[in-house]
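Researcher: We plan to redesign the surface later, but first we want a full-length starting point. Tokens attached.
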């Protein structure tokens, strides 16, 4: 939010670059969001749907954000009837869109503070005062149905004591369910744990994927705008099939239309096609297929300029963009899911996602620079294939590590143990449900012992049996509040 304001009030290139550099240095949200999603949805069968939401909302923002910012930039000139008399907006012509963008960020920050669950294992059982405040605010707008309170008697107290003791009892697989207080004693993760064999292969795959994919997206509009083959500035020395130096020569409006259609189609694939396909065939097989698609797309791209008409050029290019869309939409979520499941424990997941974001940023920086440099060489030498085939070579290099990847089990476990990983506000209620399913006889035995030592116990055996039945009946009422 602060970096957006600094950028909006910039009046020189140095100030603008410094503001963007500051934004990059303090923006660690990508790794945090991935970790949060992974901890909220540990089940493998649900991960494709969960991890497809992040690119989906990013795509929506990428489509509407530039239009929104462009419409509000320099408002004193564009809308003189509304802002023509504002000296502030004349002095800072880019302040208005960045101020409104900061308000959107503030809304997201408030929503996260008031309603987002803490998923970190060492802190998720602590009292979250932000969510307490959020629930208090919701009560002002949400009508709550009256709930009949259970009578506070010795049966409830007995169930409370037993559920508290059972919450740290051993699980059937021999592991002990940790109490919230014992989670804070964990040591920081070691680098040997973070950089396991599978995690390292995933990081390499993700970095190379970011390098060639981002470079392609940055280079494609430049290629479309470059003068067409046969124009005075494109060069006439042509020797097919490899030596030609033209582009499409189309304007920015047509390029923007193609990329808008590309983004809309990507949203459709991201949310409706990717999740069921990934669930049916598996994440790793899908990744192997799309990594083979990338080099083919890159090699074919420059030859679209040899089509006879402008319409056929753009049609062929859009078909290639659709294949690229499928590859990107599948590749990034699949890589993220595999990287998440390669972590040896949830304790290192945040560190691993932070490292992956930092390393992939290196690929995102190197890729466009490499693409621009090779594009200049190709134009100078008359070989438009140079930048695209260099990216194809990078894509082949990035596809090789995929064949050494192994699809790990992740943290979801089986369905019987899903409750052990679920972040539940009503922890005591969950334990009571588990107790009523697996330990009904133990509750009855404890009830009998309790009634035998109580000063107010009934001397009749039938009464003691009645108390035991009452406690057993109380344990079966799973939804009743304590």
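Model: Full-length starting sequence:
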């Amino acid at each position: 939010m602060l970096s957006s304001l600094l950028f909006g009030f910039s009046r020189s290139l140095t100030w603008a670059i410094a503001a963007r550099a500051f934004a990059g240095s303090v923006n660690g949200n990508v790794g945090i969001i991935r970790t949060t999603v992974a901890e909220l949805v540990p089940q493998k069968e649900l991960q494709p749907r969960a991890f497809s939401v992040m690119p989906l909302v990013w795509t929506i923002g990428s489509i509407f954000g530039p239009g929104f910012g462009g419409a509000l930039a320099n408002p004193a000139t564009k809308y003189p009837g509304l802002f023509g008399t504002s000296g502030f907006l004349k002095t800072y012509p880019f302040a208005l869109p960045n101020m409104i963008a900061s308000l959107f960020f503030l809304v997201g920050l408030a929503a996260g503070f008031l309603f987002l669950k803490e998923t970190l294992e060492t802190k998720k059982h602590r009292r979250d005062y932000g969510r307490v405040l959020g629930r208090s605010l919701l009560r002002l707008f949400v009508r709550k149905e009256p709930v009949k309170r259970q009578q506070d008697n010795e049966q409830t107290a007995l169930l409370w004591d037993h559920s508290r003791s059972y919450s740290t009892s051993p699980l059937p697989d021999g592991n002990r369910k940790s109490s919230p207080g014992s989670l804070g004693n964990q040591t920081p993760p070691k680098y040997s744990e973070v950089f396991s064999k599978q995690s390292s292969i995933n990081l390499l795959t993700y970095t190379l994927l970011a390098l060639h994919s981002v470079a392609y997206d940055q280079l494609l509009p430049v290629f479309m705008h470059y003068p067409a083959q046969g124009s005075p500035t494109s060069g006439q020395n042509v020797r097919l099939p490899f030596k030609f130096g033209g582009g499409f020569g189309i304007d920015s409006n047509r390029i923007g239309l193609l990329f808008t259609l590309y983004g809309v189609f990507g949203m459709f694939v991201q949310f409706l096609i990717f999740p069921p396909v990934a669930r049916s065939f598996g994440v790793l097989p899908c990744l192997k297929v799309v990594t083979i698609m990338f080099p083919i797309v890159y090699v074919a791209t420059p030859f679209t300029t040899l089509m006879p008409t402008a319409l056929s050029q753009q049609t062929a290019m859009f078909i290639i963009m659709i294949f690229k869309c499928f590859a990107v939409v599948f590749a990034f979520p699949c890589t993220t899911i595999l990287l998440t499941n390669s972590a040896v424990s949830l304790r290192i997941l945040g560190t691993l996602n932070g490292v992956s974001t930092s390393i992939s940023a290196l690929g995102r920086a190197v890729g466009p620079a490499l693409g621009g440099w090779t594009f200049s060489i190709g134009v100078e030498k008359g070989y438009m294939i140079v930048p695209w085939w260099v990216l194809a070579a990078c894509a082949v290099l990035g596809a090789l590590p995929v064949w050494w990847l192994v699809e790990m089990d992740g943290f979801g476990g089986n369905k019987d143990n899903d409750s052990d990983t679920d972040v539940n506000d009503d922890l005591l209620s969950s334990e009571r449900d588990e107790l009523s399913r697996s330990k009904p006889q133990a509750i009855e035995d404890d009830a009998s012992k309790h009634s035998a030592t109580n000063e107010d116990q009934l001397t009749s055996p039938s009464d003691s049996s009645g108390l035991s039945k009452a406690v057993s009946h109380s344990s079966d009422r799973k939804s009743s509040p304590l």
